Amino acid sequence: EVQLVETGGGLIQPGGSLRLSCAASGFTVSSNYMSWVRQAPGKGLEWVSVIYSGGSTYYADSVKGRFTISRDNSKNTLYLQMNSLRAEDTAVYYCARVLAARYFDYWGQGTLVTVSS
Amino acid sequence: EIVLTQSPATLSLSPGERATLSCRASQSVSSYLAWYQQKPGQAPRLLIYDASNRATGIPARFSGSGSGTDFTLTISSLEPEDFAVYYCQQRSNWRGTFGPGTKVDIK
Question: φ, ψ for residue B26 (rounded to 5)?
Fold first, then answer.
C-alpha cells in the first residue's frame, strides 16, 4: 500500500528556516517524480516544487531561491528545505507522488507551516 | 504560464442530481488535464487524469471529457459523499497549475 507521511511543520518566525520530511512506503521515491503542493488557509492548491527521478529539480517562482527539494534514497524520504520564510508561505504542505510526469496520484495528509511573529 | 479557470465557483445541488463542472485553459493543454476532489481537512484525491481516464478506485459516476482548452467533469448522480471542492490541474513544462476550484454544496 502506498503511503506518504509528512512531518516537520510548525510555527516559525518570518525569516526563519524549516525542513519538511515526507516518508514514503509502498514504492520507491527515487524511481518516481515527487512534488510538494501547498494550500494556504481557506485557499486553493498551489504547486511548489518537483524532483524528477533523474534528480532535476524545479520550483514555483514564489519559492525559487528560498526552497530546496531533495530526497534521501536510503530512507525513501522526500524533503523540502524552506529558508527565508514569509507570512505568505503559511499553508498546509502536501507531498505527492507524480503520475505520468503530470498528475498527483498519491498525497500525504499534509503538515501545517505557520509563519508568524 | 497556462492559467486555468473553473466555473461555476459554487454549485448548489441535491443528492441524486447531475453535476457539471467546467475548466477552461488559457491555451491548449491537449488532453493533459486532471480533476481532484477535496473534502474539508483532507488531502486532495485524484479522480480523472488525461481528461477522461478514471483513477484507480474512482466510481463510474465520475466522468471527464474535453480537449484543447475546454474540459468538463460530470458527476452523473450526486451521492452524499460527493459534496466537496473540485480542482482541475495541468502541467506545462515542469510547472503544475491548479484551477481555483468549484465547491459543490448541498442545496
Answer: -70, -20
| Amino acid in position A27 | F
pLDDT for position B92: 80
- Over residues B43-89, the pLDDT tens digits come to 999 999 999 999 999 999 999 999 999 999 999 999 999 999 999 99
Scanning every residue of chain A, which has its alpha carbon at the shortest distance from the alpha carbon of B40?
A42
Give the number of C-alpha atoms closer than 13 A to the C-alpha of residue B18, restricted to the C-beta side.
6
- Which residues, including other chains, have CB under 8 Å from residue A32's CB and lie 6 or more apart? A53, A97, A98
Radius of gyration of chain B (CA): 13
- Which chain A residues are within 8 Å of B57, Cβ to Cβ? none
Q: Cell numbers of A18, please?
A: 524549516
Nearest-by-CA chain B residue for A37: B96
The CA distance from A54 to B103, in Å, is 37
DSSP label of B78? -
